[in-house]
């Protein structure tokens, strides 16, 4: 009797391993092939539908057949770390970034771009409080947790369109995704330099806007004050849109 739970666990693992990869892993002995086929279709179609709804542009880019093949590969080879369907998309994005070969070279970045919208919409975070009259050049800054700068090698916001490029651009594509107070997630194209500025503020909050601009200029081999004027206008725009605000006081 003491071996019964272990045997049951082994049978369950063998059963689920077969359902995930029926082409390469044999079914446990004694199971009705017709019932197995039903379970196989149910598991695969559930994952296929879930990921297809989360990544519609990826499906469009690859086509239904190549997409289904990719999902089959993911289901067979990825040991999911979550039992929640709502978190499976994040694992799919991570899995794509670790694959040596994909059916399209932009697929991992495109999937991340599509995932970001849902991730930010569901994020449990609050916007920065209003700070009228603040001068971002001289105030200690932080980035809103609801504003994410993104840098991609591919112009992911154009993929899937009729005029989508077949090669990555000479310089990265900068995007800013933010969740507004009304709950809407919005994307905007920004320069790679602007995305790096916001990334710097987010990673190292507490410095003034002037300091961030000076550091960014020096990092890119420019004169220390080269970005001061255009950067000041950009910081004011970010502040007006709630992307940045005063840093929280030190405790």
Number of helices: 9
Head-to-tail CA distance between termini = 58 Å
Q: How many domains comprise the coordinates?
A: 2
Structural class: mainly alpha
Provide the spatial order of strands within the biggest beta sheet: 2-3-4
Helix content: 40-55%
Order of helices and strands: HHHHHHEEEEHHHE
| Low-confidence runs of at least 5 consecutive residues | none
Shape: elongated
Mean pLDDT, all residues: 89
Q: What is the radius of gyration?
A: 24 Å
Largest sheet: 3 strands, antiparallel
Number of E strands: 5
Q: Beta-strand level of the residues, as a percent range?
A: 5-15%
Structure description:
The chain has helices spanning 4-20, 33-54, 56-62, 64-77, 85-97, 107-122, 192-203, 209-219, 228-240, and strands spanning 141-143, 147-152, 173-179, 185-190, 244-246. It is mainly alpha-helical. It has 2 domains: 4-122, no CATH class; 141-246, Outer Surface Protein A, domain 3. The strands form 2 sheets. A 3-stranded antiparallel beta sheet has the order 2-3-4, with helices on both faces. A hairpin with a 5-residue loop joins strand 3 and strand 4 (185-190). Helix 2 crosses helix 4 (64-77), helix 3 (56-62) runs antiparallel to helix 6 (107-122) and helix 8 (209-219) crosses helix 9 (228-240). It is elongated, with a radius of gyration of 24 Å.
How would you sum up this structure in a few lines?
The chain has 251 residues and is mainly α. The protein has two domains: 4-122, no CATH class; 141-246, Outer Surface Protein A, domain 3 (Alpha-Beta Complex), CATH 3.90.930. The protein is built from nine helices and five strands, in the order H-H-H-H-H-H-E-E-E-E-H-H-H-E.
